[in-house]
Amino acid sequence: MALGKGESKLKKLTPAEIWAQRSKRLNLAPPADRYAGERIPVTSDLRSTFLKLSRRLHKNSVYREWKLSNRHEKRGIKRSRLRSERWRKRFADEVRRKVQLVSTIRRRG
């Protein structure tokens, strides 16, 4: 069978087929249940368990979101607050990068 112009020998795979092939190669076990990775194991030392829980809640800013959802915030005020938070985060990242650059330059001598 002769191939015409522009035809390739390999069949074009759909993105879903490509995804399925790659997933088969990984051989990953499915998650145990829908809460896998979200649990904090409770040990006999409850203090450390509560510290782990509070750290995770702080990291995911659950308390902050809860506080903000207690009262209504006007759209414009919310927008400006979010803009300010984004700016602070970018600024902190830039400062962190500059500090790392200066420390590497100092280490070189």
What is the secondary structure topology, with strand pairs?
Layout: H1 15-26, H2 46-59, H3 62-70, H4 75-108
What is the number of strand segments?
A: 0
Overall SS class: mainly alpha
How many strands, what sense, and barrel or not for the largest sheet?
none
Helix-strand string = HHHH
Query: Stretches where pLDDT falls below 50 for ≥5 residues?
Result: none
Our Rg estimate from Cα atoms comes to 26 Å
**Helical region count?**
4
Give the strand content. Answer: under 5%
Q: Portion of residues in helices?
A: 55-70%
How would the global form be characterised? extended
Q: Give the distance, in angstroms, between the N- and C-terminal Cα atoms.
A: 69 Å
- Rounded average pLDDT: 86
GO biological process, one term: translation
Family: Belongs to the bacterial ribosomal protein bS21 family.
InterPro entries: Mitoribosomal_bS21 (IPR052837), Ribosomal_bS21 (IPR001911)
Protein name: Ribosomal protein S21
